[in-house]
Amino acid sequence: MRLPVDHFPRHALCIGLVSLASAALSGCAGGAESDVASAPGGAAYQSASIGPAADYPVVVGDPYRIGATLFTPSDTLNYDEVGYAAAEEAAGVSGAHHTLPVPSYVEVTSLDSGKTVLVRIERRGPMDSDALVALSPAAFAQLGIAPGAPVRVRRVNPPEDERAMLRAKRNVPPRMDTPEALLAVLKRRLPQSGSAQLTRSEPPKPLASVPVAPSVAGRPPAPSAPLAAQATASPPRTVTAPALPPLERAQAPQGASRSSQASALPPKTAVPRQPPAARPQPASDGVYVVQAAALSSFANAQRVAKAIGGQVTQSGSLYRIRTGPFSTRGQAEASLAKVRAAGYSGARIFTNG
After folding, report:
1. Across the strands, what pairs with 152?
2. On the CB side of 137, how many CA atoms lie within 13 Å of its CA?
3. Which residues are CB-contacts of 77 (< 8 A; sequence separation ≥ 6)?
4. Backbone angles phi, psi at 166, to 5 degrees
5. What is the DSSP string of 2-59?
6. Rounded to the nearest 5°, which phi and psi values hold at 152?
7. How far apart are the first and last CA of the chain?
8. Residues 172, 166: contact at Cβ < 8 Å?
9. What 8-state DSSP symbol labels residue 112?
10. Beta partners for 151?
11. What is the β-pairing status of strands 133-135 and 80-87?
12. Where are the beta strands (DSSP E) in 46-112?
């Protein structure tokens, strides 16, 4: 007969293994939680998803009406308008917009100071006015403006680290200030109320069809009226050229040397050499670029290129900011107008070479 004490070592061993496993699991969980809590942003990052998936799903929504104004939400990538900013109570540097997708990201520029900040659109609105955008108190504070101030709203695609900062209710460093020349252009587009587009969103209208005469290249020119009448009045005549006598070859006397025979031949007539025809120059490949500026600072050149949608190339000690290349001059002139409207009045068109 075995006593109960005989089962004690096995029972104690089981209890010890269970306790050890529980301690290990709790230690792993505690370590993971501490790692998340110590990540940049602290507890705010624990509640926000990490990565681009945190901005999905993107909601566009159905058309709706505020008073007499009908708003139709749409996913417009090149959205760029001027108008006025309204106020709303919300956290972080965020805003509300009538038509942009939720969420989306915009650069808001004060038309009074030129200061520009990045804002996350998180709501639909403002629902009590036709103001261009409604901003949170933090957005107003970062811009340094008050409700009702004139602003420019331009949709952008910022990098993921800046998106994460706005999702965590943190401020993103301000953008480069807008130049005074561009602010003057934007203020001229500002309406008395509501908003005005800076880019054309509707598709271009097709050109009216114009009848074009068939090409006459390679055809002989049509005879004039008198010549045509004369040709029909009299039949064509056959003109026979008179027969020419055969050329007589000079005969040298018997016994003459080759040199004397050569001297007996008539001298050759010198034919003047015609100058070679000028070779046609190759046609230009028709590629154009628009140069906005040439700066000595690479960082400043990058900011300008980002503002006008161009690229930076180095030329010696300077960095050239250009848009293009364009296959036609008309395309280059359209880009030149946009670059000058952005404040770079010294922009010029160059051939890409």
Report:
1. 82, 109
2. 3
3. 155
4. -70, -35
5. --GGGGHHHHHHHHHHHHHHHHHHHHHHHHHHHHHHTSTTTHHHHHSPPSGGGG-S-B
6. -115, 135
7. 104
8. yes
9. T
10. 83, 110
11. parallel
12. 64-66, 69-71, 80-87, 94-97, 104-110
Residues 6+ apart with CB under 8 A from 44: 168, 169, 170
Q: What is the pLDDT, as a whole number, of residue 293?
A: 85
Q: Say how far apart CA 200 and CA 335 lie, in whole Å.
A: 14
Selection from 130, 179, 131, 172 nearest residue 300 by Cα: 179
Residue type, position 239, single letter: V
> Across the strands, what pairs with 351?
288
Token readout for 107 is 């650069």
Instruction: Decide if pLDDT at 256 tops 60.
Output: no
Cβ(73)–Cβ(99) below 8 Å: yes
Mean pLDDT of 237-250: 52
Give the number of other Cβ atoms within 10 Å of residue 295's Cβ: 17
Q: For residue 197, name the pLDDT band (cuts at 50, 70, 90).
A: very high
Residue that wins the pLDDT comparison between 190 and 26: 190
DSSP 178-193: PPHHHHHHHHHH--SS
Structure tokens at 46: 């624990």
Task: Give all strands (DSSP E) within 116-248, no chain letters.
Answer: 116-124, 133-135, 150-156, 196-197
Tell me the pTM: 0.47
- Average of per-residue pLDDT values in the chain: 74
157 touches 83 (CB < 8 A): no
